[in-house]
Design goal:
transmembrane; transmembrane helix; FBT; membrane; transport; Growth Hormone, Chain: A; globular; mainly alpha
């Protein structure tokens, strides 16, 4: 491509990414994130209010329940990741799963848009929103797993690739925001749903022709097994263990199988690779399990498979065919990650339980479901994950759950959906969704930039305390508008909403969101970053859904808003200010005592498996490296002594 068009090499992000990974995969990743994750997903979720309130005619309390379902699909993407890694379909762990997800997600969105415009359609529509969103979440996590492999093989262009992907996600979000408002004002929000279905279906082409360039499952499993053996040898040399002359079974002595190849990539659920390597180097000899034997390679449909077939070898335990060869079961992946697999199943069952409770249960049943699901998921987290990761995981869930979401009555107030004669702001969808939405996106970017300068060298605990109070202040702007205090001081509703609710609230939200993102990135173990991150992000997403359910419970029990009376009047908002005060001001500080679950470390610090900061040790190594005297890799005893000394010094400082 660069030979025919040299100027393409100078295009920001594109030139470097294409040079590192190839034209087809870069185009496929960019188009998929633009069409599916960017436009299609934002259109589908952004029109939920207009579809439910205006088209189906449900009341505010009912929409408060159903609104949480639109994000539940993102809570179970870790289950998809584990399922796909454990059971390859038609020889691939991602390709055909993404194809099915796009076809199914588009079909569910199409049916959702075709449902009759009556109140009885709302519950079925909520289920279709969940299924369509789940399809988009599947494409997202499997794409992340694929390009994480690419970046492991060739790390240098990795930042350009990530920037390329997020550029198109942001472009898609802006396109969706601009599209949703006018269509909702025109009374035709279902057109947006049809567009979402079409865009999601278009992305199937990239998987049908394998523009991602995914290798077959047997090739990847063989590469991963070989990678473990290579890492074992490197670790032996690093720990200065004696090398052995005898060849390792399954490794050709002439290097024929690895000639011309870079270090193989690992899948996002290949866990404990480093642990296996370290265990091997401390043994008296290198013993390869009997599964890692030289086997004939039977598959010749892939270029890599042909190369291995010519070499006549296969590394690792071969996948087990099942269901007449439609699936290949990767037993090693399942056995090594069985706890995470079980936890992802528990998460999936919890999401389905919350889905059913929001649609079918009464108020007490929904409250019981929230309590049971929260208890089981939090306890399972401590069972399945390392302690420091589990504590951060539970904190992330509870932080989202206690910031109770009551978007339903607030949107009804701003948009005056019931055409009430009271003094409401009477915003249009074009202003509320499009103008304020675009401004809010830019405000969020400003919040992300400010976070790096303000909190990058502060502790996690202090940062979460400060950002929690910032979110409380941001939530008070809605109370000012609801009480109409802004009109008393001469500030119009549109100006107050843009600079208050849209800008201030969005900046405060991003300031509270960023430290958790950084913490998750710090804690995810190498070799299983994507699946652990998906678990933690999914649990946090479930927390947001739970917060909407809690908002519905509060509205139904004690603070009803826009409730239909016997005389037909449904414009009562006398409880809205109190509802905002309870949910946005009183509830968020409840998470402050739980900051003790977070590691006692700064945001810029590296964190070990016990949640302790390695700041002083890293700083000492940096100084030594600048002086040209960087020490060799420390032993475990030295690490223990360094950590103990740091703890002792911290205690003395505290005294």
């Amino acid at each position: 491509m660069f030979a025919r068009c040299p100027l393409m090499r100078r295009v920001p992000m594109l030139g470097e990414a294409v040079e590192g990974y190839g034209f087809k995969v870069i185009v496929a990743l960019g188009a998929t994130n633009l069409l599916c994750r960017g436009v299609a997903d934002r259109i589908l979720t952004g029109q939920t209010y207009a579809m439910m309130i205006d088209r189906y005619g449900i009341d505010v309390a009912r929409y408060q329940r159903l609104s949480s379902i639109s994000t539940m699909g993102w809570s179970i993407k870790a289950f998809t990741a584990m399922l796909c890694d454990g059971f390859a379909f038609l020889g691939y762990t991602k390709r055909w799963y993404m194809f099915i997800s796009c076809v199914g997600g588009a079909a569910f969105a199409l049916i959702y848009g075709l449902l009759p415009a009556k109140e009885a359609s709302a519950n079925v529509a909520a289920a279709f929103i969940f299924l369509s969103t789940w399809g988009k979440a599947n494409v997202d996590i499997l794409s992340e797993g694929h390009y994480s492999r690419l970046m492991r093989q060739n790390p240098k262009p990795g930042p350009a690739l990530v920037s390329w992907i997020w550029f198109w996600i942001m472009v898609g979000a802006i396109i969706a925001t601009v599209m949703n408002g006018p269509l909702a004002d025109a009374g035709k929000p279902q057109i947006s749903i049809f567009v979402s279905a079409a865009l999601q279906a278009i992305t199937c082409v990239f998987y049908l022709f394998n523009w991602y360039g995914e290798k077959k499952n047997r090739v990847l499993r063989s590469e991963d097994a070989l990678f473990i053996l290579e890492e074992t040898r490197k670790e032996r040399e690093r720990f200065r263990r004696p090398a052995h002359d005898e060849p390792v079974i399954g490794l050709p002595q002439d290097g024929g199988a690895t000639k011309g190849k870079k270090s193989p990539q690992r899948s996002h659920s290949d866990e404990d690779v480093e642990a296996v390597a370290v265990d091997e180097v401390h043994r008296d000899d290198v013993h390869v399990p009997h599964e890692l034997v030289q086997l004939p390679y039977e598959d010749g449909g892939d270029a890599d498979a042909v190369a291995d077939a010519e070499a006549g070898i296969y590394y690792g335990k071969p996948p087990v065919p099942c269901l007449f060869g439609l699936f290949e079961m990767n037993t090693e992946v399942i056995l090594e990650n069985w706890k995470i697999f079980v936890y992802s199943v528990v998460m999936t069952c919890a999401v389905i339980a919350m889905l059913c409770a929001n649609i079918l249960a009464d108020t007490l049943g929904l409250l019981v479901a929230c309590f049971v699901v929260s208890t089981i998921c939090c306890c399972s987290s401590f069972w399945a994950l390392p302690l420091v990761i589990a504590k951060a995981n539970v904190f992330g869930y509870l932080q989202q759950a206690v910031y109770i979401n009551i978007a339903s009555p607030l949107m009804t107030f701003y948009l005056n959906s019931y055409n009430c004669e009271e003094n409401f702001p009477n915003f249009s969808y074009s202003f509320y969704n499009t103008v304020a939405g675009v401004i809010g996106n830019f405000a969020g970017l400003a919040g992300v930039s400010a976070f790096n300068y303000i909190f990058s060298k502060r502790s996690y605990r202090l940062t979460f305390c400060v950002t929690t109070f910032a979110q409380v202040l941001g939530g008070m702007t809605d109370i000012v508008i609801v009480k109409r205090w802004n009109l008393y001081i001469g500030i119009p509703d549109h100006a107050m909403y843009i600079w208050g609710a849209a800008v201030v609230s969005e900046v405060c939200y991003m300031l509270g969101y960023m430290p958790m993102v950084v913490l998750l990135s710090r804690l995810c173990p190498r070799g299983s970053e994507s699946v652990v991150y998906a678990l933690m992000a999914g649990f946090s997403s479930l927390g947001r859904s739970t917060s909407a359910s809690l908002g519905a419970i509060i509205m139904e029990y004690g603070l009803p808003v826009f409730k239909m009376r016997e005389d037909g009047y449904r414009c009562g908002v006398e409880n809205l200010a109190w509802l905002l005060f309870v949910c946005n001001v009183c509830s968020p500080p409840l998470v402050l005592p739980l900051t003790l679950l977070l590691p006692k470390a700064r945001i810029c610090d590296a964190i070990d498996v016990d949640g302790k900061a390695l700041r002083k040790k890293v700083d000492a190594e940096m100084v030594a490296g600048e002086a040209g005297a960087l020490p060799s890799s420390p032993t475990s005893a030295e690490n223990t002594n360094a950590t103990k000394a740091q703890d002792d010094e911290a205690k003395r400082e505290a005294v």
